[in-house]
Write a structure and sequence with these properties.
The complex is a heterodimer of chains A (180) and B (95). By secondary structure, chain A is mostly helical. Chain A has helices at 10-14, 36-45, 47-69, 76-91, 99-106, 110-122, 138-144, 148-160, 166-172; strands at residues 94-95, 126-129, 132-135. Chain A has a three-stranded antiparallel β-sheet with strand order 1-3-2. Classes of the chains: A mainly alpha (180), B alpha+beta (95).
Chain lengths: 180, 95
């Protein structure tokens, strides 16, 4: 999952230009679409820009590994909370996601997500009305999530030396530095 | 293709499935419910043992109940088992 802290296809633009993934837009947000030639030209001229792209290319597989490795030992509830925290970081508290989508992302059955979502809703952590999920209490949601989101945020800071998320800023008392 | 809804029932509590899933027919819906029930049970056994829904109720788009998949883990008192299982096993081992 990529949001306001990341980029898709930049490495392909400066490298061999073969993209093996199909990317789906899930949440309506502002994003920039940049021609591959432009990305390559800028990367050739600016080592800083190239370093950013390479850095994200290092961060992203780390994120995937973290999520994959911890899929089995963590309960569906903790994993659901983790994904919601991650989505909050990437897109804010209003998430137009279906339970089917959440289930697919976690590789579980929709009914399991239904059970968890109903529990979280009953406790006032989220509200959910037909494909529109609103995160009401991010702090309690974080405390219920598996520790993966901490690891992922930490990896981001290690690579980029800064954070792009409001929640992490509050936790660590770090200065916000949004990556646009 | 019809849309089926999989409500989860636990005693008087019903967790309503508001999204539903489009499936080819009742047979697919049945197997969907069984797989869903397996995962709910497995999750309950693997983790905190929170009460799992007692049944997956398959409902069509009119709200008509079509099928019920009941989730059970049974524990019977020894005197209801019908025959003395442990004693029999002991006698087998002695042979």
């Amino acid at each position: 999952m990529i949001g306001r802290e990341g980029v898709f296809g930049a490495m392909q633009a400066i490298d061999h230009r073969v993209s093996l993934n199909i990317v789906k837009v899930q949440v309506q947000m502002r994003a920039s679409v940049v021609d591959a030639n432009v990305v390559k030209n800028v990367a050739d001229e600016s080592p800083d820009f190239r370093a950013l792209i390479v850095g994200y290319e290092q961060f992203f597989p780390g994120l995937v590994q973290q999520h994959t490795a911890r899929n089995a030992p963590h309960s569906i509830e903790r994993r659901t909370c983790k994904w919601l925290v991650r989505m909050y970081d990437l897109a804010g508290p209003d998430l137009p996601v279906t339970q089917e989508f959440l289930a697919q992302m976690m590789g579980v059955r929709r009914t399991s997500v239904t059970t968890v979502a109903s529990q979280l809703q009953a406790e006032g952590l989220i509200s959910y009305v037909r494909g529109k999920l609103h995160i009401q209490d991010i702090e309690r949601l974080q405390s219920r999530a598996c520790e993966c989101h901490h690891a992922v945020r930490q990896q981001y800071v290690e690579i980029f030396g800064r954070v792009s998320t409001t929640t992490f800023v509050a936790e660590r008392g770090l200065a916000a530095d949004g990556v646009e | 293709m019809p849309r089926y809804f999989f409500h989860l029932r636990n005693g008087e509590t019903i967790i309503e499935d508001k999204e539903g899933s489009v499936l080819s027919g009742l047979e697919s819906a049945r197997s969907y419910a069984v797989r869903a029930a397996r995962e709910l049970l497995a999750e309950s056994i693997k983790y905190d043992g929170k009460p799992t829904p007692a049944a997956v109720v398959i409902v069509d788009h009119h709200g008509k109940v079509l099928l019920l998949t009941v989730l059970t883990i049974d524990m019977l008192p020894a005197n209801q088992l019908g025959r003395p299982l442990l004693a029999k096993r002991t006698s087998n081992a002695a042979k």
